[in-house]
Amino acid sequence: MENSKQMRTWLDDMKLDHPLVIAGPCSAETEEQVLKIAHDLIDTDVNYFRAGIWKPRTRPGMFEGVGAIGLKWLQKVKEETGLKTATEVANRAHVDLALEYDVDLLWIGARSTVSPFIVQEIADALEGTDKIVLVKNPVNPDLALWLGAVERLHTANIKNLGVIHRGFSTYEKTKYRNIPEWQMAVELQSKFPDLPIINDPSHITGKRDMIFDVCQTALDLNFDGLMVETHNDPDQAWSDAAQQVTPASLIQIMKDLKIRKVTDEEMDYNNKLSQLRAQIDMIDNQLIDILGKRMKTSDQIGALKKQRNVAVLQTNRWNTILGKMILEGEAKGLSEEFVLRLFKAIHQESINHQEKIVNA
């Protein structure tokens, strides 16, 4: 992937005046449902109509997609609306069928990206194709694995490549279905600035009311497009009902988003500042999450101290922490004064948490 410029031609050729938009239902359910949604998306910012034909599920017995018959419905979408089509492929058989029905854009899902064997099988099946192929990040936050999948496809002489950022799985409960880990997407952008990156807010949030905010963050970070799951009756969807929006809601989201267009030739002050501020916002949110986790651990320590009738303030432990953090801070370019003020505030909040528990 030394010359990533080659990969950007498909997006450049589209000459869009807005970010790329891929939209449609999580799963194709019926021909009527697919065509209804597609017709509702005509004359909007949507460039590709997506629908899951084969749905890899965590456990057997759940709805796993309608299968190849759904590809005929996608063909009708293209014929009746003019929208280009997109679907996920997970093996050679899927690829062969998708190519037979002339699907325009294929993506490799997060569960497939984790397996070099699966990615290689798909790369071999697609070798030399001019179709657009996008790679979702693996379920775990592993940048090398993500890039490795792209490299396998590039080696197979597939030039119309891109990636989809859909967040990363975690055992921890957060407000997200999949934690964005924005810094990983930013790092990928910095290494391969000409590799198109599409954000998937539906899988990141798992909740439709959070989709706008994640879309805006993605655009502020200079993502090239969005993939938003869209359903004519989301509450009755056969899969991932909570994260799908109606076509009307999608149209409104696209209207409300602030698009800060950045060109390769010139990035003016305001656009650059907006991107940097978006990165600051991302890091600030991570700081709050980390501090929240620290205080939960302090609560557990407070409960242990109460059981053992131990004093909340342990001076020797505090001095050890402070000395260590001052040295760590200096290594990161932080002044001793700042580190002292920061950790004194954190320490005081920790004491407050523990005192509430000990004195309860």
Automatic annotation (TrEMBL):
GO terms for biological process: chorismate metabolic process. It is an enzyme of class 5 (isomerase). One of its GO terms (molecular function) is transferase activity. Pfam families: CM_2 (PF01817), DAHP_synth_1 (PF00793). Its EC number is 5.4.99.5. Keywords: Coiled coil, Transferase. Residues 259-286 form a coiled coil. Residues 267-358 form the Chorismate mutase domain. This is chorismate mutase. The lineage of its organism: Bacteria, Pseudomonadati, Bacteroidota, Flavobacteriia, Flavobacteriales.
